[in-house]
């Protein structure tokens, strides 16, 4: 074996040492190069790249996600320290993590302002045409001038003006000249005197106050209302500013003179003549008559004849197409129709000034009342549904009940003094249905401070919604007819269950209602109080104003309006627009053939006239 010389061994060692040194230098240079590129990338993306982000944040103040910040760091504490002798591997190359995050995040900073821009700009562009369009439409409504009067706060009559048609005298005054023809059995001439109040009542027994009391006929509202209108403080001759338009037609007196012995053509003549006259007037064209109203001092069934058969009752005024647009104020309205509204029967009291009312209220508040309940009326033996017979029996059999029987011939029921005296001495006054739903006695009793007891909601609660509180328990007691008819409930026991303190509160409520239930003397004017006339006129104005505003807004007052449910709508709470089932539905069921000219309501109207004939005999 050949041995190498020492010189050759030394030479190999030198070559190996040289190669090793060269390898170390290469590693050092590679490391230095890598460090340089990392510094360069850091400076580019972190130092220089940070300025655009900051400027973008200044321009658009929105939240910027910063999760990518750690990826810009090269001194990651989780990474292992590497010396110059450590080989360079792929795990040390962090370039993708440094470069990618900023590239992914850049759109998130820029995009949101682009999405928000349309939402700021678009709404004004969409709304502007609607405002202009609405204003243009409003200008086209012929009643806009009348509506604008409500905006004039310096005008006490703003939104309250009434225009009165100047009707030919054949529609009103000529009827009064022929007053003896207004009733077959009653001399209506004396009842149309004193502006419709009738002859003054003498206060012989001290039942009345010294002034303001008259023997007023219960069907005289036509004249009283018309004369009160002459004293209205906001009359105008300019129909374009009128909140409503009054038609001074004596509809009640017209039908009264032709009900017996006249054919349908005669009964309808004045109504057709009136409609023909009104529809030719320029005022009619403003709203097609929907801003017009008139008064008839009779029950609605006298004006709702469905057929032209001679045997049918009344005329067809309220079924004429034009009249359907008008509002007719009657002493009893139909629960199934929308163009008539109930107003109080006239009482015997017609004060000329506020002081007369205050004095009467004070007196009624302090009276001693010895009777728990009372009733003034006659039985209805021909009407199997009437509960009057049972009520009369209970009054007779009670030691705390008072009865004033109204039968044929002379009767204290025809004496205003006797009636008012009994009511003034009673805590509760029984008010069953009369010949129809309503009766004047209800208003006479409340005038006397007596709490009314009703047995049918149609006697008051659904009738006089303008004049009486919606919450009927505040001023009255309700005992359903069936409780008397089928169960023979004791009225005395039912009334005794009411605590004395509650009775006192209810009586005060009744006495506070007196001003709005009476018609003041048409020849004078109350200073601060609102009487039945004022309440009714304001209600008509409110009704017309709501209709006008609804027309402008293109909406209706109620959703899915059903005329046969008319009685329900006035009972709705604020904001309600649709009716449904009601606890009083059984009281107003409408079997086929009833509540029309050939049904029970027409028969009730006939019976009312027959009883008027009987009372005068």
From TrEMBL:
Cell location? Golgi apparatus membrane
Biased-composition ranges, Basic and acidic residues, are 91-130, 581-595
For molecular function, the Gene Ontology terms on record are: glycosyltransferase activity
Give the record's keywords alphabetically.
Glycosyltransferase, Golgi apparatus, Signal-anchor, Transferase, Transmembrane
Superkingdom, natural source: Eukaryota
Leader sequence segment: none
Under the heading Pfam families, the entry gives: Exostosin_GT47
Mode of membrane association: Single-pass type II membrane protein
Q: Does the keyword Glycosyltransferase apply?
A: yes
Q: Name one GO cellular component term.
A: Golgi membrane
Residue span(s) of domain Exostosin GT47 = 157-494
Comp. bias (Polar residues): 80-89
Record region (Disordered) = 70-130, 581-617
Q: Can you tell me where the transmembrane regions are?
A: none
Give the family, as the similarity comment puts it.
Answer: Belongs to the glycosyltransferase 47 family.
Q: What is this protein called?
A: Exostosin GT47 domain-containing protein
Q: To which species is this protein native?
A: Eucalyptus globulus
